[in-house]
Structure formats: C-alpha cells, structure tokens
Write a sequence for this structure.
C-alpha cells in the first residue's frame, strides 16, 4: 500500500461527495475507503440499465445480489431495494425490474442513479462495526452482532480509539451475544482475530480522517477463515 496515494484517493472521493452537496459517501465510495485500510469488500459493479446489470452479473459470476443505488435511499432493504441469491440471468432480470418497481411504489421521489451488482456472500455471522466522533472524547468504536442483537436487545459494546488488539477482542467478548460467534450445533466459529483487526481499522479510519464523523459497516459477514464488508456508509463532517 502506498499511504500517500491512498490518502489522495480518499480526499478525491470526499471532495466529489461534497461538490455534489452530499454529507455522506455512497456504498461504493465508503467501501473504497475501507479497502484502502485493508478491510475486505465485496466485488461489485455499478450498472445503469437492465442489460448492463446482466453483463455485470455475468462478469462477477452468479449468484449475485442487486441493490438500488440512490443518495436518497439509506435503508435499501426497507423499500425492497435489495434482492439476494440471484442464480441465473432470468432471476437477475426479474430482480432488476422488481427493484425499480419497488422504488417507484415506495419511494417515487428518490433519484435512482443505478443498480449495484454484487457478489453474493455465503451465509455467515453478520456483525456491525461502526465508529462515531464524539465531541468530547473523539472517535468511539462500536461493535455488535447483527439483527435482533443490536436492533432489539441493544447488545453493543463501545470503546475509545485507538484500540489495541486486546481491547478489540474485549469489545467482542463484552457483548452478550458473542457466544454465538464461537459456533454451536456444528457451526464453525467466527474468525475473531480477523474481526478484531477490522474493529481496530474502523477506529483508525475515524482517527486518521478528520472529515469523517461516522462509519457504519452493516453488515460485515464473518466466516471461520475470512470476513467481508457487504454494506457500508460513511458520514462526513
Ligand atoms: P440496507 O442495510 O441498506 O437495507 P444491505 O446492503 O445491508 O442494505 O442489505 C440488506 C441485507 O441483505 C444485509 O444485511 C445482508 O443480510 C444481505 N446482503 C446484502 N448484500 C449481500 C451480499 N453481497 N451477500 C450476501 N448477503 C447480502
Ligand atoms: Mg446494511
């Protein structure tokens, strides 16, 4: 990695967002920042038509996921803007039309830039890693298991960045749900070491980049020997 080049690229992305009047980075842009910090991201292509989406799906390889790409849609799946597990060209075509239709019904005012075609990541542990810049304490890193653990049980842990490896591992252990990650009923345990590294890196992004006030990887899918960010959002100051 060439740090200065990476840093310049990140500044370019942030400047572009600001010039478009945005106070946040889109999914592709956010993931490029994660990638610059060595966090694995999904392979994906941006498509602007149905045929383009099909070509992209063939290039990425089935199964794929299709996602609506719009600066006005933050929670994509809430309006039927994400369709996963598409195994064939005809399934992908149908999903493309369905997403456009869902948006036109549920969020007709939203300007759709295109559709993101993404590799489908096999089932694993879905976790959330985030960070916010606290006015008083600076960057605070957040970790939690996805779904009901965070949304209903509010089972999340927080620590101030910068984090040591030990602290990052502690953050995982501090959540009540962490036992799930150790695997049960024959499921393989999650790669906690790699997960701790991602938690450290998210803290580092928020510490390094003064322009970034908030980072949210939701979800990061964790397997026994690898992990990958499938959705991300960065908020600018
Ligand atoms: P949003 O959070 O805006 O609703 P996401 O991109 O997080 O949209 O997608 C919603 C859910 O779909 C994710 O939480 C995850 O369970 C699943 N998902 C999204 N992208 C992928 C992918 N590439 N591979 C596997 N599952 C995915
Ligand atoms: Mg998400």
């Amino acid at each position: 990695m060439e740090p200065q080049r990476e840093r310049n690229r990140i500044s370019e992305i942030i400047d572009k967002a600001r010039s478009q009047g945005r106070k946040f980075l889109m999914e592709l842009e956010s993931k490029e920042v994660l990638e610059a910090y060595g966090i694995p991201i999904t392979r994906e292509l941006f498509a602007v038509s149905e045929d383009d989406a099909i070509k992209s799906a063939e290039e990425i390889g089935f199964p794929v996921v299709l996602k609506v790409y719009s600066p006005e849609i933050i929670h994509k799946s809430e309006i039927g803007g994400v369709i996963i597990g598409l195994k064939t060209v005809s399934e992908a075509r149908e999903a493309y039309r369905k997403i456009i239709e869902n948006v036109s019904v549920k969020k007709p005012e939203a300007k759709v830039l295109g559709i993101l075609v993404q590799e489908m990541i096999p089932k694993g542990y879905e976790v959330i890693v985030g960070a916010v810049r606290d006015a008083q304490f600076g960057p605070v890193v957040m970790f939690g298991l996805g779904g009901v653990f965070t949304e209903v049980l509010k089972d999340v842990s927080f620590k101030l960045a910068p984090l040591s490896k030990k602290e990052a591992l502690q953050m995982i252990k501090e959540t009540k749900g962490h036992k799930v990650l150790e695997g049960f009923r024959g499921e393989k345990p999650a790669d906690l070491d790699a997960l701790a590294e991602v938690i450290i890196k998210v803290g580092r992004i928020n510490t390094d980049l003064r322009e970034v006030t908030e980072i949210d990887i939701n979800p990061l899918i964790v397997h026994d020997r690898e992990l990958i960010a499938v959705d991300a959002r960065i908020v600018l100051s």
User: Anything to note?
Assistant: Residues 42, 65, 67, 75-77, 82, 84, 118, 120-121, 126, 218-219, 230-231 surround adenosine-5'-diphosphate (ligand 1) (CB under 6 Å). Residues 165 and 196 are 6 Å apart (CA to CA). The first strand starts at residue 24 and ends at 25.
